[in-house]
Amino acid sequence: MALNATDCDDRVEQLIILTERLTDLIAQQSSAFEARRPHEAARFVDEIAKLANVYRHESARVRAAVSLVSGASLQRRQRLMRATEAFDAVLARQGRAVAAARHVTEGLVRAIAEEIAVQRPQASGYGPGSQGAAYQQSGTAITLNQRA
Known about the structure:
Blueprint: H1 8-34, H2 38-41, H3 45-64, H4 67-70, H5 74-119
């Protein structure tokens, strides 16, 4: 999907609308993460993905051919620059919110895994040294991904 612009001014105007819509959606998503309501943030995922793909595609087109926007009025180009700056700021905010949510989630998973390990019954074997031998492994029912 690409923008269907008639001239430079039209393309810049469409880029402004696209950028502002993405900024608004990502700000709403960030607010949901900051309010510790990731389930509310999930409702924005599909539209953000679609718009982000168009934004990425159009940004690449403009980088490859600056003439697509260079003929637009100075006022429109400045509005696009301001919209892009706001978009960058919201992306940074979202990055912080997602990192915080990830940190909390990882802590919860670790706490659950540790509790499961503590509550696991110890094996009772036959003979000296066999006490708990079957459960000496550190594996639990939950797999922890250290890179996530």
